[in-house]
Specification:
This protein has helices spanning 3-11, 15-33, 40-60. The protein has 74 residues and is mainly α. It starts with a helix and ends in a 14-residue tail after the last helix.
């Protein structure tokens, strides 16, 4: 989907959901950066933030839920 269309669709979301979408995207980016074992604490924090954001997103629209960025997540 082109960015301009995604922006228009996102503008129709309630402000709380817009903020949550940004939070989930930030958590996914942090997960992608925290792949080394020494970053375990930061990775766990990002998982917590992503789970919190997904809870809000699922309540609004289950299609907005972000998946885990780490393919090794169990």
């Amino acid at each position: 989907m082109p960015d301009s269309i995604a922006s228009r669709v996102g503008a129709q979301l309630p402000p709380r959901v817009q903020a949550t979408v940004r939070d989930a995207a930030d958590a996914r980016r942090r997960l992608a950066l925290c792949t080394h074992p020494r970053y375990e604490e930061a990775r766990q924090l990002a998982y917590t933030d992503l789970a919190r954001a997904n809870h809000t997103l699922a309540a609004h629209n289950p299609g907005l839920v972000h998946t885990w960025a780490d393919p090794n997540h169990r």
